[in-house]
Amino acid sequence: MLERENLDTGPGAPLPPLWHWFYFLATAAQSRLGTDGHPERGGFMPPIDLPRRMFAGSKMEIHQPLRLGQPAERHAEIRDVKLKSGRSGQLAFVTVDYRFIQAGKLCIEESQDIVYREPGAPIMAPEQIEPTDPGPKIWHRTVTPDPRLLFRFSALTFNAHRIHYDRAYALEQEGYPGLIVHGPLNAMLLADLVHRNQPRAVNQFKFRGIAPLFDLAPFRLLGQNTEDQVELEVRGPDDRVVLTATAVLSEG
Questions:
Q1: What CATH code is carried by the domain that includes residue 231?
Q2: Alpha-carbon distance 173 to 112, whole Å?
Q3: Which of 74, 92, 171, 178 could cross-link with 24 by S-S, CB 3.0 to 4.6 Å?
Q4: Which domain does 98 fall in, by range?
Q5: Under a CB-based contact definition with an 8 Å cutoff, are residues 242 and 186 in contact?
Q6: Residue 228: which of 202, 208, 196 has the closest Cα?
């Protein structure tokens, strides 16, 4: 899906940064899915009675990579739940901490922010404009999203949220102009941009979603390497930033 060349997938090979999202997947019976495709509320996640759910951001520290072919554990804990009222109505912020352990060693620590909100007004499609020249010192890549890419990422993460593959639902029920490109997919594409442009390992990574991105036009990945970290962003077809991220690199 990410067109990664010469990837070692043999036993003991290191898992690339963020690829742990393809594992430890929660399962739900078909009869337990809500109308939007998400599992019914309750169980581990709190039973918040707000219909829209978004993976708003994450920050992680990679002490050492997970290794393929070896058993590993994920431990999860809900650290915080906050209810707020904003311009778009009621909001709920849920912070979940994860610890990934392999061979008795802590490999990855991650904190995810999940946001629940009320339905909002319909969103207009962004105007497509000629992008600005990033300059010679900025890493950049253009990605053309389509339903095949979104379906493959949904399948790999066992995500049945209909805004990513059901265009009629996304337009008619949630008021979007197109299918939504997953926030974690954007983050993973940015981590891949780091890999394509320098050889050092990523020790820390964090991202924050700012605005939705749709499958209506190409978008750009941008990165600027400053000493031991890379500042990253995704820009939509209107050249506005929709997601930001920072990658901290290993020494040397």
A1: 3.10.129.10
A2: 27
A3: 74
A4: 19-249
A5: yes
A6: 202
